[in-house]
Design brief:
- 43% of the residues lie in helices and 21% in strands.
- The protein has 275 residues and is an alpha+beta fold.
- It has 3 domains: 150 residues, Sandwich (Jelly Rolls); 39 residues; 60 residues, Arc Repressor Mutant, subunit A.
- The strands form 2 sheets. A 6-stranded antiparallel β-sheet has the order 1-2-9-4-7-10. A 4-stranded antiparallel β-sheet has the order 3-8-5-6.
- A hairpin with a 2-residue loop joins strand 5 and strand 6.
- Helix 3 runs antiparallel to helix 4 and helix 5 runs antiparallel to helix 6.
- The C terminus is likely disordered.
Length: 275
């Protein structure tokens, strides 16, 4: 497996959380689990189209040279061959407005192609395919995103909504976040749903799960996997709480996720949390 983080242009930094170049040799065809997070996902595959559906919903399956998905609370099933290469971006909710001209709520729970979202970027996949190097592909991608940023002039989210979402991401209770920005809980719920397509509580749960997923992934790569430790560090009441939330979002238990995504690694401390 080979993955690398590319540098995000300063002008794009408020809108693009990450740009990952990936070149993964799986060894055999299979299904990768695309985990939910608080970032919108934008994938540009090379070599073969991306084949993806929401887990357990085969009627949502799409195949194409680009994939755009809003925030979602179930995993994506990414079908792959022996090898996958491409570039994957994680966008902030504000990035949907800035780069595509639509609120993130319009994309929540959707699996779309890039030209469904922004016709101005419809030829981007072909431009990347024409480049012979990763440096050339990343330069073409950056140029296209900067041009898109100039093309769209949609206002960012309200500052108080952005602040409330930042508080929710850090685990602040919904009522406290609403008080902090001067809204009733009901009003904040309406504004957050309008912005990202999820309720504040669901967004908060998704943010906590995303932190746990990041910790679990780092632990796997470090060779020291403990579900109980990840649960404690991520703010869950206990290991069983994390196991329930993980299964709800990912469709499998933490240990099953490790087994499927990292078959040579053994997770510890997950009794009774089988799939």
């Amino acid at each position: 497996m080979s993955e690398g983080m590319a540098t995000v242009h300063p002008a794009l930094a408020p809108h693009v959380r990450s740009i990952v170049v990936y070149d993964v040799a799986f060894g055999a065809p299979g299904v990768h689990i695309g985990m939910p997070s608080t970032a919108l996902t934008f994938v540009l595959p090379l070599d073969e189209p991306l084949d993806v559906a929401w887990d357990g919903a085969p009627h949502t399956r799409t195949v194409g040279w680009s994939s755009v998905s809003g925030l979602h609370t179930i995993a994506a099933a990414v079908h792959h061959g022996d090898r996958q290469r491409g570039i994957q971006l994680g966008l902030t909710p504000a990035g949907a407005r800035a780069l595509w001209g639509v609120p993130a709520s319009a994309l929540a729970g959707e699996l779309l192609h890039l030209d469904d979202v922004d016709a101005g970027l419809a030829g981007l996949a072909e431009r990347l395919a024409a480049e012979a190097t990763w440096e050339g592909r990343l330069a073409a991608l950056e140029g296209a995103l900067l041009a898109s940023l100039r093309r769209h002039e949609h206002p960012p989210p309200r500052p108080e909504v952005a602040r409330a979402m930042a508080l929710l991401t850090r685990g602040v209770p919904v009522a406290e976040a609403a008080d902090d920005v001067g809204y009733s809980r009901r009003r904040l719920s309406t504004l957050v749903r309008d912005e990202v397509g999820l309720t504040p509580k669901t967004y908060q749960r998704l943010a906590r799960f995303s932190r746990a997923h990041g910790r679990m992934r780092r632990a796997v790569l470090d060779g020291d996997v403990s579900v109980a430790r990840v649960a404690a560090e991520s703010g869950y009441a206990d290991q069983a709480h994390l196991a329930r939330e993980w299964t709800g979002f990912a469709g499998v238990s933490p240990t099953e996720w490790v087994r499927r995504e990292f078959p040579n690694v053994q997770a510890t401390g997950d009794p009774g949390a089988g799939p």
